[in-house]
Write a structure and sequence with these properties.
Helix content is 29%, strand content 20%. It has 416 residues and is α/β, with parallel strands linked by helices. The longest helix has 18 residues. It is elongated, with a radius of gyration of 25 Å.
């Protein structure tokens, strides 16, 4: 074993399995072939034929490599780092870059965003492993057959592509079959998983006021917005909240994050980046809107907190006992976002973090409340997610005028 191999063996965090070489391997390709099970070669001038050497033609062809423990990048290939972010996010390999000097940040921006840091200068190369971060998070969503066909399938595919495989996605499917499969994808039958939802629907399915029609309601029928059926459609939004109640009892993780099924996970995100959205001292994280109910397309709850447990108990109680004291039908509106706010504000000691707090400083357009509109894509989450609420489902993306803050991510460049 020569000096190069000794330094690799000593510093690589994961036992050498496969490696990806972008370029010519610093002139040490034979050493790498002897150390790794398979060496994938990309954008190289080398013309070799070895049993464990596999030539790759383009960057997309390496995104699904599952056992890469090291990536070796020639100094004249460093601009490729932007192209391999899906692989970096997926399997978190060590990265070795030719040359002892640490690169300028303009070349390593993606590495830093994904939690990588230059930690060792090894003479002929320097090394950047990811900072250790073990996120204990479950993500949950739900949809029916039409929802799956229209947007849910795309949401699942984008999640599996761009979120860490260590984070599970629970899908509560209503009378439909999910064709995607992955170790971190758990598909549940919504009705079988939540008899409480079935009971709620059996009781309220035939009742107009619980299904968007308040024409017979002496108070709400006089409101100017009485015709906005979604505000009174308790049954429609019950599917969402009851799936959350069920998953919170089953998932056994510290955090449970709700994500609407019409969300696109458009860019890779690492565990380290996700951890920044879930502050240590907080128990509930959400998207607030000043002067209006919260945007509940995305929120997260710390399940290990007693305050969260009590919040979820009360959240479910106001649906189970919908006409009782403080139940949903005693509230001004009956959709899940309004109910969510009504319940969370009943707990003054609940430590809550508003992801969209900074948007309340944005000057609204005429007729808009401060902070209203599309908070998810305008807060930090917009770097990774798009939310196709309302008519955006048919467009396949958010609208150009939904953006109120500058966005530099590649996904948003299509909006220029």
């Amino acid at each position: 074993m020569n000096k190069f191999q000794k330094r690799i063996s000593k510093n690589i965090r994961i036992h050498p399995n496969d490696c990806l070489v972008i370029g010519d391997g610093f002139g040490y390709i034979q050493e790498l072939l002897s150390m790794f099970n398979t060496v994938f070669l990309l954008d190289s001038t080398l013309e070799l034929k070895e049993k464990n050497l596999v030539q790759r033609k383009d960057y997309e062809s390496v995104f699904q490599l599952a056992n890469v423990s090291g990536i070796f990048i020639d100094l004249n290939k460093v601009e490729c780092i932007d192209y391999i972010s899906p692989l970096l996010s997926k399997v978190s390999p060590d990265v070795f870059i030719e040359g002892n000097d640490v690169l300028e940040r303009k070349y390593t921006k993606v590495l830093y965003q994904l939690g990588y840091r230059a930690v060792a200068q090894l003479g002929f190369m320097h090394q950047g492993p990811q900072e250790e971060c073990k996120m204990n998070v479950t993500v949950i969503t739900t949809f029916h057959k039409q929802g799956y066909d229209t947007y849910g399938k795309r949401m699942i595919e984008s999640f599996l592509k761009n979120w860490p495989s260590s984070i599970k996605l629970y899908v509560y499917a209503e009378d439909c079959t999910v064709t995607e499969s992955a170790p971190n994808l758990i598909v549940k039958d919504l009705h079988q998983s939540s008899p409480e939802l079935v009971a709620f629907k059996n009781k309220w399915n035939g009742v107009p006021k619980a299904n968007g029609d308040v024409s017979a309601d002496p108070i709400r029928s006089k409101r100017k917005d009485s015709g906005k059926g979604f505000k009174w459609h308790a049954v429609r939004f019950a599917h969402k909240v009851y799936s959350i109640f069920s998953c919170a009892k089953e998932c056994n993780t510290e955090w449970l994050m709700w994500m609407d099924a019409d969300t696109i996970c458009h860019s890779p995100i690492s565990e380290k980046q996700i951890s920044r959205f879930l502050p240590d001292k907080q128990e509930l994280c959400y998207l607030g809107r000043r002067g209006k109910y919260s945007e509940c397309g995305l929120y997260a709850m710390r399940l290990t907190s007693e305050n969260t447990i009590n919040f979820l108990k009360e959240f479910q109680r106001v649906y189970d006992d919908a006409e009782g004291n403080g139940g949903i039908f005693s509230m001004a509106e009956w959709h899940d976002s309004y109910v969510f706010d009504g319940v969370r504000t009943r707990f003054p000691n609940f430590k809550q973090h508003d992801w969209a707090a900074s948007l309340n400083d944005i000057r609204p357009r005429p007729g808009m409340s401060r902070g209203e509109g599309h908070p998810l894509i305008n807060c930090d989450w917009g770097a990774y997610l798009d939310h196709l609420k309302g008519g955006r489902k048919q467009l396949g993306q958010s609208k150009r005028d939904d953006l109120k803050v500058p966005r530099t991510e590649p996904y948003w460049q299509q909006f220029k």
